[in-house]
Amino acid sequence: MSPEVTTERRLIRSARGGDQDAFAELVVMHADHVFGALRRFGLDASEADEVAQEVFLRAWRGLARFEERAQFSTWVYRIAFNEAQRRLSRRAPPRVEVDQDRDDPVVALPEAAHLGPEAQALDHEFQHALEQALGQLPHELRAAVVLRDIEGLSTEEAAQVVGARQLAFKSRLHRGRMQLRALLEPYLMLEEG
Amino acid sequence: MSDYLDEELPSSRRTRMERHVEVCPTCHRTLAVLRRMLGSLHRLPPSAGGADARQIAASVRRRLGEPPPP
Lengths: 193, 70
Description:
The complex is a heterodimer. Chain A is mainly α. Chain A has helices at about 5-15, 20-40, 45-60, 70-90, 115-135, 140-150, 155-160, 165-185. Chain A starts with a helix and ends in a 9-residue tail after the last helix. Chain B has a domain at about 1-40. The radius of gyration of chain B is 22 Å and the shape is elongated. Chains A and B meet through helix 2, helix 3, helix 5, helix 6 and helix 8 of A and helix 3 and helix 4 of B.
């Protein structure tokens, strides 16, 4: 077991015993990820900040119900997902607009993990397009891509977060990825052959 | 195709998929595009307008004694 996991378990047990400082430490450990996921689920920065606080307050109140078989991060992502969906459901769904005839410049996307300065600039430009495209996906599909492909949860964990069976989650994830691919196709020029 | 990329296909189906992709230009291209897209998603930096984790923790810490909403 890694030192981080050991520390986290110790903090969870202390927090369950009413130690508020221990809980604040858990918040520090997870706030970046919760905030980042909330932003990419579709909330703006000030809303994500407000909701992140609510998420941790709910976690504090529900700590007695947290089962340590699950990861603490998966549990707080689930609370965050539910709260984000509650807010997003009041809004009109985003429109997916795939324009096959657009004249955007085609960007060759670098593949290597270690990128030079030019490749880094291209990657930065593509990342911007990626964020824009992500924002056009329906909430449910976007959440699947955010949890699995950006936050790096396993299929099992991500399915738990959204409260879906793994098969249903995989179907959402695939649809999300394919819609994203269609939106990004003009940016993805590949060397053939 | 997603299961293949996530390495969640049983080996027999994985082999079938690999054989198909070798001879189908459409699937070959789709798979290559998806691979690059997933690589970029993994490399995305923390969300813009990032959180200050310590500030969120301090705000939460102050509010821990609040009664739950009705």
